[in-house]
Design brief:
Length: 367
């Protein structure tokens, strides 16, 4: 009896060691994922104007046609069709062909549009700008606004279609599409902290029906979050609307890194107590090699790449998919790591509880 108890204790110690090794290896590997890319380009970035159309009285779901009109004076006495999007054949639009070359474009998705050049060419624009907008069957003209005076910059305007004359003003609520990527690590650490704390609470509530310790559940939760979060909140959002092309390309590499880290973690867990020292050394050496390969791939995909994908998944869809993936993936990982001590239905219940807690608290701290 004492011998069996001793074997059980040794097995638990071995399992803890394997968890630590797997967690450290995964953490080191994922910490090498840069979330803000420094673009060392020989050419300046494009000139961009983000447009958001809204109305306090009527929801604006989509824009069917937009013309960006160039004006020589604030009265727009000689309007010129600079560039357009959609069907601009209705009464109220200018009938002349767009004047700007193909390296300028105006694209829209839902109630938002992006006007941009390939590179810095702001000097080609007239001193004033006006918009002609069609939504539903209504064609509206906006107020005339001065063309932004900057070398190359990103400007965000909101257009109030509920006013008598559609009013253009600075959009104070504008958030750059890459903000989620640049604030990744604070949210990453916050989520891990909350979900590990949720594991402690869950284990305390169901301590009579759980066949594992709070420590084992907490460590496994930590590892599951290290693996799932980069996919949920880096990869999936990269395929949303108004996202940079190089983030989508980097996301493919992130998927590969997470897949490798997941396989290594499961291998270490399955072969606990049997891993040779040489294998562990090889895994440690593999971390900087993977990091270098990732950085090279990121540089190749980002160098000179300023393309923004206007079309993509709506933000609501992104959030739903991210949460579904997090809950499903973490449930599977917890079940595989903890074997028969934490069956899938319990892992799913816990994952729902932990992700709901981190999501709701995240909304308060990371609006």
């Amino acid at each position: 009896m004492l011998k069996r108890g001793g074997n059980t204790s040794a097995r638990e110690i071995s399992t803890r060691k394997q968890h630590r090794v797997a967690g450290i290896w995964v953490l080191l590997l994922l910490l090498f994922l840069p979330t803000s890319v420094v673009l060392a380009n020989s050419l300046p970035p494009p000139f961009q104007i983000y447009l958001r159309f809204f109305s306090a009285s009527t929801p604006i779901h989509s824009i069917s046609g937009v013309q960006l009109v160039g004006c020589d004076d604030s009265a727009c006495s000689s309007p010129q069709n600079m560039v357009q999007f959609g069907d601009c054949s209705a009464s109220g639009f200018l009938t002349t062909a767009p004047l700007l070359a193909d390296n300028w474009k105006l694209e829209c998705s839902g109630p938002r549009c992006l006007f941009e050049s390939d590179f810095h060419e702001i000097k080609m624009l007239p001193p004033y700008i006006q918009l002609i907008i069609q939504y539903d069957a209504d064609v509206r003209q906006s107020t005339v606004i001065k063309t932004p005076d900057c070398d190359y910059c990103t400007i965000a305007w909101k257009v109030d279609l509920g006013a008598l004359e559609a009013t253009i003003s600075l959009d104070e609520e504008f958030i750059k599409p890459d903000r989620a990527f640049r604030s990744f690590f604070p949210a990453y650490l916050f989520t891990i902290l909350i979900e590990v704390l949720a594991a402690v609470i869950f284990a305390a509530i169901f301590r009579k029906s759980l066949a594992l310790s709070t420590r084992s559940l907490s460590i496994s939760t930590l590892l599951a979050n290290l693996l799932s979060y980069p996919i949920s909140w880096l990869v999936i959002p990269a395929f949303g609307q108004f996202q940079a092309d190089f983030y989508r390309k980097v996301s493919i590499m992130i998927i590969a890194v997470v897949a490798i880290a997941t396989l290594v973690s499961l291998y270490l867990q399955k072969n606990r107590g049997k891993i040779k020292k040489g294998t562990l050394i090889a895994l440690v050496i593999a971390v900087p090699i993977c990091a270098v390969l990732f950085l090279v791939g990121m540089f190749i995909s980002s160098y000179g790449n300023y393309t923004v994908h206007v079309s993509g998944l709506p933000w609501v869809t992104v959030v739903i998919l991210a949460e579904i993936f997090a809950v499903g993936f973490e449930s599977i990982i917890l079940t595989l790591l903890l074997n028969d001590k934490f069956p899938y239905h319990k892992a799913l219940l816990f994952s729902l509880f932990a992700n709901a807690a981190s999501f709701l608290l995240g909304l308060l701290l990371f609006p």
